[in-house]
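== Polypeptide entry ==
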Amino acid sequence: MNITEKLCTVGTPFLQNRKVSPETAFRGYLPHELGRGLVQHVILHLSDSMPAKALERMRREVAHLSEDEAKRELEEKVEAWSDAGHGCCALRQPANANKMRDTLLHFHEVRYRLFAWVVMPNHVHVLFQTFPGWPLERVVNGWKKNSATEILKDHQPLPRPFWEREYWDRYIRNPRHFRKTVEYIHQNPVKARLVRHAEDWTWSTARAWAPFWG
């Protein structure tokens, strides 16, 4: 089974197949797509991984672009900054990464369907689809709250709040976009030079996806 066949088996709803566009909400400094049932790519950052001054500088650098281009360019800049390993990188510790992984898996196929994810030292990527009654914001806030509670109860000297208040999200438009996003997520540890091959990184779905490529 290749990746396109796998998508058909789960009935993945992409934006191009919908009759209405997703609602967009603006909270803080980032827009969020709230269309129910969409497949979304969400990125969470630890609170000390992106200093406010650095983010503000990046925002100024993309201010001349259109809204869509600016968001895409800003995401790339933030990702490059994150991959450089800024902050405490609390999720580099295996015990903490395991707790983040367990948080994501806990309500899989109950509140949402996970397609791909990776836990990086200072941020997390998740590709998923919410189920009825569980809007994007509620699911993401649940991940942040539950993982922070589990990690911080060990009294580790880590920043509080543990997570950055905002998160990044982008809806998936079509199967090609889906495939590129899965590949992008799994290649994060390779890009950050943490491993040579995506499948070597313990905290991701790269190994599970390997049989489907082709």
